[in-house]
Amino acid sequence: MNRYQSIKPEQKYTVRQFDREFPAEDACLEYVKERRFPGGIALCVNCRKERKHYRVSGRTSYACHACGNHIYPLAGTIFHKSTTSLRTWFYVIRLMASTRVGVSAKHIQRETGVTYKTAWRMMKQIRKLMGENITLNGPVEMDEAYFGAPDANKHRHLLRQDSKATVFGIVERRGRVVARVLPDASKDSILPVVGEVLPPKTMIYSDQSATIEQVRWMGQSHKLSTVNHSERYVDGYAHTNTIDGFWSLVKRGIKGVYYQVGIGYLQSYLNEYAFRYNRRKVMRPMFSLLAERTTMQVCPSAREERLLARPE
Asked: Among 64, 180, 203, 306, which lies 20 to 30 A Cα-Cα from 273?
């Protein structure tokens, strides 16, 4: 690795590139429109045909060339009914995609000039784009982790394990990761995640956790190899260094950037870190990979409701 330049040219996305690609609001709206309705071709709910739609001046809509019915590319997305500048949204997406350990809402407030409350909500909406359901392959490592305040800072009545959030993680060797917040570390919580994420006959490496030992008898023919951490951290091919590295990345990021995260929001933060981790080797800018997901429907829109209610 070149110690003077560790970022591959294909993964770079600078401020100059952003300003050149998205110089104004219209460019951002056109990007979303092209991702959602390529070429402006969309099903008109009035004509009931695929029609060409043209931009309506002064509005974030496009009109059918035949009947004039409007479509709104931002409807149902994270930008739905937002009064914040669309270019500000894209700039925040770039900031969240260009960091490895996260960016705080206070930093977004200073960079964009929006209020802290607006910055926090924008980041919460963008994290919705980072959630995904994937299936892992090949040799994997699995381990549980606990997130919460150190016991040294707690009152005596809070010194118990269930005062922390339980997180279970599965990671491919040199690959992707899945992290889930669970009610506890029991087999009833962990084994359904294993069955959902892993195909049968997967090679699993873990520590000597009694709960994870149960994967041997879950009927999926998984192979399990463990390492005793009280004696050594690597035993042949058996180790959990990969998943421990991911936990370290997440915990240092939360402690250094966010300081604390409520249990109700922890899953969305894990999704954020997992999204970037899973694409660290993709030879494309992280901003482009995240911006492409801005057309995801995160809330119902009037157009979709009309299409669903339309008789066949």
From this structure: 203
